[in-house]
Amino acid sequence: MAVYRKKIILQIIFLFIVVNVGYSQNSKSYFYENEFDFSLPLKGKWSMDFGFGNRGMFQERNAGKIVSGYQHEHLEMKHFTTYQASELIGISLGAQYRFRELFDSSKEDEFRLTEQVEIQSANSPLSHRFRLEQRFREHIIHRGRYDIAYSMPLNQYFSWTLGTEALYAISSQLKPEAEQRISLSLANSYFQDLELGLSLEYRMENYTRNLDHEFFIISGLTIDMGN
Fold this sequence. Notes:
By secondary structure, the protein is mainly beta. It contains one helix and twelve strands. It has one helix at 2-21, and strands at 27-41, 46-62, 65-68, 71-84, 89-99, 110-120, 126-136, 140-153, 158-170, 177-188, 194-205, 212-224. Strands 1-2-4-5-6-7-8-9-10-11-12 form an eleven-stranded mixed barrel. Strand 2 and strand 3 (65-68) form a beta hairpin.
């Protein structure tokens, strides 16, 4: 089983490389993200999660040529309040604010509301997450998201997760957009109440009308303040 899992991970990494080399006529962008989160349990079945993060773009290419270099995209703050309705189901309400004008005066800051339902069993490697979002920026955008992920331990301290997420956005001022994301993540829980994570993510932006390829390297640190 361990050999089989390693083969899957290598195949996913190979897929990232193939997609990056191929589709040379489409726009391709390379990003990094850093995330810092901490979780705080409340009374009963309630909990709260807070997070800070930033995003930057290394490079953007079109038809194989560099069209823009490094630029910082945004800083963000986010918060989720979660009610654990049962052992399987968690219901959350979240708010998020992205500071974008600090780095590009042509862009507006974004405020986002999120309604979320997450289904996960301790006895199953699969998890499901459903989200509805309202994004307040130049235009109000409504977006639906469905994420399915498969997680397995590598050893006592390391685990990996393979996930894919489908997104669909609509707005009264813009045409609908569909997006698909594929991610491969590695997590380390060696330190008590502290988890370190590193992810590779590939995004197919607006693939029904004007396909763009985006590649992300995401690092994360999560602290559980329950103890």
